[in-house]
Each structure stands twice: as structure tokens, then as C-alpha cells.
Write a structure and sequence with these properties.
Layout: H1 2-25, H2 34-86, H3 88-216, H4 221-245, E1 257-260, E2 265-267, H5 269-272, E3 287-290
Antiparallel strand pairs: 1-2, 1-3
Helix pairs in contact: 1-2, 3-4
């Protein structure tokens, strides 16, 4: 505003001076125009003074405003610096307390986290333990069912084995009884064979004696009659023996096979293969034994 007032005063001054020069040049500054010149000069001076006063007031106001602005800036700087200097100690104490508080909170958070982790671990352990128990129970049930089936199978096998053992024991007892019976039959047959052999030897001796006596006394009727009797007795014995040894099926080969259970020595080896029963007593054949008789 001071600049605008100065520009206005300069603009006002130049026309006035120009008007004064124009008035002087036009001869208005003579004696006849002195009062008008004086009045105009007074007004012009008064206006100039007012303009100067206004400019001074404006400059003073501008200076006051600048001074106030500077004072405010200084006051702000001092008000900012003084508390900062005073609060240095308090800031350090506040930072220390804040750090302690943060450490306490961090420790508390760590404790809470550790407690939560322990709780979760305990829950997980309990859950795993329960799952393990359930799995073991299911496994035991499966094992029990499988074991029961296997035990039942084994019991059946044991029962069958016991039944088979009893059957074998009965069969063994029967075989032992049959063996004993066959031993008795064999002993009887041996005794019979020995008796027949002895009788045969006696007949042979008698025949030989008769032959010797017949050679010494061929004309003796008694000797002839004895010889005939001996010969007839020998023929009968040989016929009996041959009949006992001959096969009762083909009547041609000697008997060498013993039929069971009737125990008749009545068939040859060739006929035994086609016979289903004993040819003597017609008992069904269960087994057969080849007898070695010399």
C-alpha cells in the first residue's frame, strides 16, 4: 500500500507541475493571477502533506506488522527450544519407562504364548492318546475275531486228529489182535507141518523097510501083503497131502496165499488176484498174505 501511495503522489505531482508550467507559460502567473496561484499552491501543499502523512502511517503500520511477525517468530523459537531443553531428562526417563513397559509386555506375551503352546501340546497329546486307544481297540477286535476263527479251525483240526488217532488206535489194536491170531495160526501150522513131516518120515522108513523085506523074501505072502498095505498107505498120504496143497480155485497149482479174515490157505498167487471171497468158506476177502512154505 505504501508503494501504491507513492505512485499516486508521483502521478499527482507531475500533472500539477505540468499545470504550473503550463500556467506560467501561458502568462497566468502575472500580477493579475497571484491570488489564484497562491490558493492553488496552498491546496496542493495540503494534499501533498496528507499524502505524506498517509504514506508515513502506512509505513509505520507495515513496520509494526513486520516487528510483530518477527516477535512472534522469536517467541515461537524460544518457546520451542526451552521446553525441548527442559524435557531432555524427562524424555530419557519416559523412554526408559517405555522400554521397561515394552519388555514387561513382551515377557507377558511370551508367557501367554508359551502357555498357549503348552495347552495345545497337552490337547494334542490327549487327542493322539485317544486315537491310539481307539486304534488299539479296533486292532484288538480284529485280532480277537481272527483269533477266534483260527482257534475254531484248530479245534476242528484237533477234533479230527483225535478222531483219526482213535481210529488208528482201534485199527492198530485190531492189527495186533490179528497178528497174534496169525502167530497162533502160524505156530499151529508149524506144528502141523512138523507133525506131517514126522509122519512122512515114518512112512518113508516103513516103506524102505518093506522094500528091503520084499527083496529078501519075495515069495512071502505076508511080506507082500504088508508091502501092498504100505504102498497103499503111502499113496493115500501123498494124495491127502497133494489135496491140501492144491489151489481150490484152479485145482492145478499149489496154494500159497492165505485169505483174511477166514485164514484159509486155499489159493495160488494167480487165482488170488481174481478172487473176491474165500473158495472154501465163501467169506468176503478183506486182505491176503502170501505164505512161504518150504
Amino acid at each position: 500500500m505504501a508503494i501504491e501511495a507513492q505512485m499516486r503522489s508521483e502521478n499527482l505531482g507531475f500533472p500539477l507541475c505540468g499545470s504550473q508550467d503550463w500556467m506560467v507559460d501561458n502568462g497566468c502567473g502575472g500580477s493579475g493571477g497571484g491570488f489564484s496561484d497562491f490558493c492553488f499552491n496552498v491546496q496542493q501543499k495540503h494534499q501533498l502533506q496528507q499524502q505524506q502523512q498517509q504514506q508515513q502511517q502506512q509505513q509505520q503500520q507495515q513496520q509494526l506488522q513486520n516487528q510483530q511477525q518477527i516477535n512472534q517468530n522469536l517467541c515461537f523459537d524460544t518457546s520451542f527450544l526451552v521446553p525441548t531443553l527442559e524435557n531432555n531428562n524427562t524424555c530419557s526417563s519416559i523412554m526408559a519407562s517405555c522400554s521397561q513397559t515394552m519388555e514387561a509386555q513382551a515377557a507377558k506375551h511370551r508367557q501367554e504364548i508359551d502357555q498357549y503352546i503348552r495347552l495345545q501340546n497337552e490337547r494334542l497329546r490327549l487327542v493322539l492318546q485317544e486315537q491310539r486307544k481307539q486304534q488299539l481297540a479296533m486292532l484288538l477286535k480284529k485280532i480277537e475275531s481272527t483269533t477266534q476263527v483260527l482257534l475254531k479251525q484248530k479245534d476242528d483240526e484237533i477234533t479230527q486228529a483225535n478222531r483219526r488217532r482213535m481210529e488208528l488206535e482201534d485199527f492198530l489194536r485190531k492189527l495186533e489182535a490179528e497178528n497174534q491170531a496169525w502167530q497162533r495160526v502160524a505156530q499151529e501150522n508149524e506144528a502141523m507141518v512138523m507133525s506131517l513131516n514126522n509122519t512122512l518120515e515114518q512112512y518113508r522108513e516103513r516103506v524102505s523097510c518093506c522094500l528091503i523085506n520084499g527083496a529078501d523074501d519075495a515069495e512071502s505072502c505076508c511080506d507082500n501083503r504088508e508091502e501092498e498095505e504100505a504102498e497103499s498107505d503111502g499113496v493115500d498120504y501123498e494124495q491127502i497131502r497133494m489135496k491140501m496143497k492144491v489151489c481150490k480155485s484152479c485145482n492145478s497149482r499149489s496154494s500159497c496165499v492165505l485169505f483174511l479174515p477166514c485164514r484159509h490157505l486155499c489159493s495160488c498167487k494167480a487165482c488170488e488176484a481174481v478172487l473176491d471171497c474165500c473158495p472154501v468158506c465163501r467169506t468176503p476177502k478183506k486182505a491176503s498174505i502170501e505164505a512161504l512154505i518150504f
